[in-house]
Specification:
Blueprint (H helix, E strand, L loop, with lengths): L2 H13 L2 H4 L4 H9 L8 H8 L4 H42 L4 H16 L3 E8 L4 E8 L4 H4 L2 E3 L3 H9 L3 E3 L12 H10 L3 E9 L2 E10 L7 H63 L4 H12 L2 E5 L6 H10 L3 E3 L2 E8 L2 E9 L6 H41 L5 H10 L8 E8 L6 H21 L3 E5 L2 E7 L6 H16 L3 E5 L11 H19 L6 E3 L6 H5 L5 H19 L3 H10 L4 H8 L3 H15 L6 H21 L1
Helix pairs in contact: 1-5, 4-5, 5-6, 5-10, 6-10, 10-11, 10-13, 11-13, 15-16, 19-23, 20-21, 21-22
Length: about 650
């Protein structure tokens, strides 16, 4: 309500006869004092009429009511303007101490939504690179598609605001034909349930950089004061973005100057370091140093931690990029330089926790990788004889030529292998396509070299056989034959850059005393290998235990007890602990065609008892125990358990 109206009402009240207003304003003053709603101002008039007061009194109350309502409107307007000014002041204060642009923009959108009393407020910014605009901040939004909207320039109400650089408001978005509707925008607005939308431009000079919106999920008319208020918030948002951009540019310029200054100061030190590392690497090559000696020397020069890592233990993407480009590649906070020789990937030199690397230092790391490859080739040449010896020992074990346990242990000990520990026999074969016989032979040589290197590092044995490779690797505590097969498939595949399929035997023991176990394990591993290839699992690794009841056909020793235990062992153990009859119930359930009704007749129990037992079985075996494939394995295990029961007694 305007000040002129309030003054006119006050003059009317003053011109009224004293008796007419004397005392009637009291209830309205009380309503004003406690900030009552507008509806409450009717109560004194209604009460006077109900009491039969004179017409003069009622008329005076009506005039006092109108005057009080106008005063109330004026007070509310002042409070609203104070709140708006306070919000603008707080936003300006946030802008003055700008630290986080997102936090400032979110505060602007939150305050705009609160003061305008809308369901949703949001801010979009233009993306010059993509030529569209995107949601930057939303408040009150509940629809994910709406929050992720990207609008083409000129599309939607926001496009109209951006084109004209003027505020636009629509009482009903979907009925408004002044702007271009698109399926994507309309779908997002419909998901959010918006109806009335007000948009004002964010201006930097004469350029529109975005739009600030306030929207309701019902029809609404936005007043001129509300449009002006939202425009004030938009101006502050634009100022915040401009300030943040200036701060970013300033910080970037300062950082560039500081970096340039550091480069100038450190140039002489870099040259000295390069000379130092050249001398150290040359000395290492001359005295026959090792890979880790190179890593240690480069660590000192680069003032960081440099490690040699196997190809399988290095991040694949940056390692392949370094190999292809011939340069060190940054990966997160590390630098990776591939160590290659003749197209073969031997490993990598990794500089840890050193994201900012000088170009000269990067070249130093790359030269160190070259020296490492030379040392590895030299070591490989020296190790060829040892690898041949390893292959000969494994060939003898496979063919059971040498039956003297003492001699076998002695030969293995010289190769740092222990035939008394538990091992797994692994059959490995390439599964990548070969263009011709020459390429296939080269691939097999790479597989043999990679397998020999793996066996040497894991204290095992390796040999070429049957167009592939056989490995004898120790099984560590807590590991399984399956784990070892899959890990070996990944390692060899990474080393030769082709899929390698690996079949594993069950664990074998006492190899010195029983070398024939190696041949039996190799036969089992080959059966698993062929099963993987038939199942279309080329490039994977597995043992007989992974194939369920098919593993009984693949396993050399037909581990029936192990299959029964893996399949229904928990049910058998539960019966033994509790004295229950779950195994018999499960057997009867399958015999009766998985019908609880027929099962209860076969067992002479109530159908609820059958249901309770089967529920317990489900908790022990898992929810999928009645799936066809799983049910088949369970029935086979039950049959084998029943057949083996007399022997156990």
């Amino acid at each position: 309500m305007s000040r002129d109206h309030v003054q006119s009402a006050e003059r009317s009240a003053a011109e009224a006869p004293p008796a007419a207003l004397n005392g009637v304003e009291t209830p309205f003053l009380e309503l004003l004092a406690r900030g009552a709603s507008a509806d409450a101002y009717e109560q004194p008039v209604l009460l006077a009429r109900a009491e039969g007061r004179p017409a003069e009194t009622i008329g005076a109350l009506e005039r006092a009511k109108l005057l009080a309502l106008r005063v109330r409107a004026e007070l509310e307007g002042r409070r609203r303007r104070e709140a708006e000014l306070s919000a603008l002041f707080e936003t300006a204060h946030d802008l003055a101490g700008l630290r986080d642009l997102d936090a400032v923009l979110k505060a602007i959108v939150q305050r705009a939504r609160s003061l305008l009393g809308t369901d949703v407020a949001y801010l979009s910014l233009n993306d010059p690179e993509r030529g569209d605009t995107y949601m930057r901040v939303t408040e009150g939004s509940v629809a994910a598609r709406f929050q992720q909207l990207r609008l083409g320039m000129g599309e939607g109400l926001g496009g109209l605001v951006a084109q004209t650089a003027r505020p636009y408001v629509t009482d009903d978005y979907f009925k408004d034909g002044r702007f271009q509707h698109t399926r994507t925008i309309d779908a997002g607005v419909r998901d959010e349930g918006l109806v009335a939308i007000l948009g004002v431009p964010l201006m930097l000079g004469h350029h529109v950089i975005g739009v600030l919106f306030a929207a309701d999920r019902r029809a609404r008319v936005f007043e001129r004061e509300q449009i002006a208020l939202l425009g004030s918030f938009a101006a502050l948002a634009a100022a915040a973005i401009d300030t943040a951009n200036l701060l970013t540019e300033t910080r970037s310029a300062l950082a560039g100057l500081e970096r340039a200054n550091e480069i100038i100061r450190d140039r002489s030190a870099v040259i000295e370091r390069a000379s130092d590392v050249h001398d150290r690497l040359a000395e290492l090559v001359l005295r026959g140093g090792g890979v880790h000696d190179v890593a240690a020397a480069v660590s000192q020069v680069l003032d960081g931690t440099v490690e040699f890592t196997e190809a399988a233990d290095t991040a694949a993407a940056p390692l392949e990029a370094s190999r292809a480009e011939g340069h060190a590649v940054r990966h997160e906070d590390d630098w990776i330089a591939a160590v290659t020789a003749g197209g073969e990937l031997l490993g990598a030199l990794v500089l840890r926790g050193h994201p900012g690397l000088d170009p000269v230092d990067q070249l130093t790391l790359e030269r160190a990788a070259m020296v490492t490859s030379l040392l590895l080739l030299a070591r490989r040449s020296a190790a060829d004889a040892e690898q041949r010896v390893r292959g000969e020992l494994l060939d003898d074990l496979l063919d059971a030529r040498d039956r003297d346990p003492r001699l076998l242990r002695e030969r293995a000990s010289r190769l740092h292998a222990d035939l008394d520990s538990t091992h797994v026999v692994l059959a490995a074969r390439l599964d990548g396509p070969a263009a011709d016989a020459e390429q296939e032979a080269a691939a097999r040589r790479r597989l043999g070299a990679a397998a020999s290197h793996l066996a040497a590092t894991r204290h095992g044995l390796a040999a070429a056989r049957d167009g592939g490779t056989v490995l004898l690797l120790p099984l560590t505590s807590g590991d399984t034959a399956t784990d070892l097969a899959r890990r070996t498939a990944r390692h060899l595949g990474t080393a030769v850059h082709e899929p390698v399929t690996v079949g594993a035997s069950a664990p074998v023991r006492d190899l010195a005393a029983h070398p024939d176990h190696v041949a039996a394990g190799y036969a089992e591993g080959r059966r698993c290998l062929e099963a993987l290839r038939l199942l279309g699992r080329a490039g994977d690794g597995a043992a007989a235990e992974d194939f369920g009841f098919l593993g009984l056909l693949l396993a050399g020793d037909r581990d029936i007890a192990g299959f029964v235990d893996r399949t229904i062992g928990q049910v058998v153990a539960y019966d033994e602990r509790r004295g229950t009859d779950l195994v018999r119930t499960l057997d009867a359930y399958f015999t009766c065609g998985m019908s609880p009704a027929r099962t209860k007749d076969a067992l002479h129990v109530h159908v609820n008892t059958v249901a309770q037992r089967l529920e317990r079985v489900g908790r022990l075996l898992g929810d999928d125990w009645q799936d066809p494939a799983r049910a088949l394995e369970i029935q086979l295990a039950l049959r084998l358990h029943r057949l083996s029961a007399p022997a156990q007694h």
